[in-house]
Amino acid sequence: MIDDSAPNPTEGASGALFADPPQKPAPAAYRVLARKYRPSRFEDLIGQEPMVRTLSNAFKIGRIHQAYMLTGVRGVGKTTTARILARAFNYEVPARDGHPAIDKPTVHMDEIGVHCQAIMESRHVDVIEMDAASHTSIDDIREIVDSARYKPAMARTKVYIIDEVHMLSKSAFNGLLKTLEEPPEHVKFLFATTEIEKVPVTVRSRCLRFDLRRVETEELVRHLAAICDKEKVEVETDSLALIARASEGSVRDALSLLDQAIAHGAGAPVGIENLRLMLGLADRARVIDLFEAVMKGDIAAALAHLKEQYDAGADPTQVLVDLAHFVHFVTKTKVAPKVVDRGATQVERERGAVFAENLSMSALSRAWQILVRGVEEVKDSPRPLAAADMVLVRLAYAADLPTPEEALRKFVGAPAGGPAPALSRSSSSSAPGPATSLRAAPVLAAAQSAPAPAPDAPPTLAIRNFAELVALAAQKRDIQIKAALERDVRLVRFEPGVFEFALAPGGAPGLAAQFARKLQDWTGQRWMVALSSTEGAPSLIEQAQATENEKRTGLQAHPFVRAALDQFPGAVIVAVRGGEAEAAAPTAAAPEAAADDVAYIDESEEEDL
Questions:
Q1: In this model, does residue 74 exceed pLDDT 60?
Q2: Which of the chain's ends, N or C, has fewer CB atoms near its CB within 10 Å?
Q3: pLDDT digit string (tens) for 328-340?
Q4: Is 224 found in the same domain as 203?
Q5: Between the CA of residue 333 and those of 288, 326, 350, what are the distances in Å?
Q6: Which of 164, 185, 211 is the last residue of a domain?
Q7: Dihedrals φ, ψ of 136, to 5°?
Q8: Which residues constitute the domain of residue 428?
Q9: Are 136 and 125 in contact (CB under 8 A)?
Q10: What is the dihedral of CA 435, 441, 444, 447, to 10 degrees?
Q11: What is the reported pTM?
């Protein structure tokens, strides 16, 4: 019996007696540049020569570690290096065409081996990649520990690659320690992290650590240029330098920006202006003009430059970041003119050299500090443009501050056009070295301890006793010194030129030095002021308190006052007013006057006072 519902092999999908025409293969999906040009060998890694050299020597002499920790910022090749290592552990090439077989770990992988393609595509059964951000628990680690006991199914070594390992939980780290320290011979661990300080020391100590560095701008520009040649993309050299600076040493970020720039131009050459518009960056020439305006103190021009760049699409925060980068570039040009930054444009080199010659190190240092703090302020501000304006105002006013040399001249009284004492370099010369700073310090110390006599110096003033010193402090309106003399000084000896005292409880040990400076300033003479180990007389406040207590005790013994206190149980004497003689001896003939001189207070009201 024939089933009519079964398709006829000679019929097409439409039921006709002809076969369907062959279908065109679907076009391959586009691969982003960061994946298309991902390194597959150690020779392809850029900027990581120290790590490659260490690993090459280790594989050559057979000192292959059981666990590796790869750390660094994003996009420098941590996961890529882990996959290349996994490929090196399992590199295997069969013998053919007279070439011997290769079946041992090696870093020299000139051709694709048996397991290489599957490892680089993250689909090899014996190379297990795990993202610790989504597998953080002890259960995930327990699966690794259990499966590590079994030998690999196809390759020579079973490799576990754990990305962002710092995100594992504390219990997960603890569960991994034993296996990590004594793994089976066929197991290797490769960890990658951007925050190495969050990885426990117990884990770090069991691993061979490699710190992958940021890629230098010059090397990154060469790498991008080579990729543009392969992709047949026209691009300006300045554009590649701008992309390299914006990526901050990250190869993946640089390739992503290049991908975006190519798409932004729609096949047109990647120009610097379009790239700035795409990234929201400021024109480097405009940034230099802005720097010139603020360093001249021209606030109006500086604010106008910033507004123009903002209207053109530049982010105020990025403008300040670019301004800080240029300050750094000028400073490097000043202190190390022979070190050439190949990532800088010709305009930056020419104008930066002029600024380096005319600006002092103190001015550049102040500008850097203001900009670094200002960037954070602008980031956190709800009005970034206004915050950036205020940073520029602060920077312009700081440009008018005197240099340390000028301040020193004013301090010691040297003429404004004359040379600064003990300083052999002007503000427009190269940066002063440590020796120059050390020569300036004694001059400041000498000026502070013994200022040079001036024509209008005050005449010599004699102080004959301690009471005159307290009165002089009140006359000078130096409240702090007057309070210290009354409260903290227990006088031992005082005569012209000599002041010796002991400290009352709570007195500051540095009072002797303060008194010596004040006495020299006030009298025009040097005084010997010293702390004594003897007890000394009571301080002025202690004497006043003793006198008050004595008055209060004598008054309390008088019959009239005693009767008043008995009349009001719980009352106490808090103050004695009026003349000393009347307060000490009130008479019965004048009880009203005596009562006026005595203040009473009930115990129930004492807490309120």
A1: yes
A2: N
A3: 989 998 888 877 6
A4: no
A5: 15, 10, 10
A6: 211
A7: -105, -10
A8: 404-443
A9: no
A10: -90
A11: 0.55
